[in-house]
Amino acid sequence: MASLLVLFLVACGGPDVTFVSENAVYTLDDIEALHASQRPPSSLAGAPVGEASELRHDALVELRSRGNESAELAEFVTVALADTGRSVLYYGEAAVVEGSPAWVILEAWGAEGGTLDSTRLWVFDRASGSVVYSSTSR
């Protein structure tokens, strides 16, 4: 049985990032339900998009400090999801989606000049780095 490892990475005034490592098995319908249930932390809700790059950097630094698998996710996000200055990772999970090992990533994002008021879901194949699925919620 896979062990459950849930890290709530919260520092006083720092990033609120959740990393889950339990290799849960999901269908795409399950992934959409996860997207609906995992809302951004209050520290990101309504934050100005102008702060997104700094908040993203802080979240990735925090992930890198929390172990090998979360550091692997942080490195993947750094390479695969370029910093556009408009989004912040708030949830990452090592899972199995539609039968393949995957990274599940949730970001808060917003329009330039606006606030981080929307969310985006990414599912990437861990072996190839290819996008398996993505969706947006406003």
* Helical run tally: 3
Instruction: List SSEs in N-to-C order.
Output: EEHHHEEEE
How many structural domains in the coordinates? 1
For the terminal residues, how far apart are their CA atoms?
A: 36 Å
How many strand segments?
6
Fraction of helical residues:
25-40%
Radius of gyration: 14 Å
Shape category:
globular
What is the averaged pLDDT score?
89
Largest sheet: 6 strands, mixed
Q: Proportion of β residues?
A: 35-45%
Strand order of the largest sheet: 1-2-3-4-5-6
Structural class: alpha+beta
Which blocks of ≥5 consecutive residues have pLDDT under 50? 1-13
Summed up, what is this model?
With 138 residues, the protein is of the alpha+beta class.
What does this structure look like?
The protein has 3 helices and 6 strands, in the order ββαααββββ. It has one domain (5-12, 26-137). It starts with a strand and ends with a strand. The chain has a 6-stranded mixed β-sheet with strand order 1-2-3-4-5-6, with helices on both faces. Helix 2 (52-64) packs antiparallel against helix 3 (68-80). The chain is 26% helix and 38% strand.
Question: Which terms summarize this structure?
Answer:
single chain; alpha+beta; disordered N terminus; 138 residues; 6 strands; 26% helix
Secondary structure elements and pairings:
Blueprint lengths: L4 E6 L5 E11 L1 H10 L14 H13 L3 H13 L6 E11 L2 E10 L8 E8 L5 E7 L1
Parallel strand pairs: 2-3
Antiparallel strand pairs: 1-2, 3-4, 4-5, 5-6
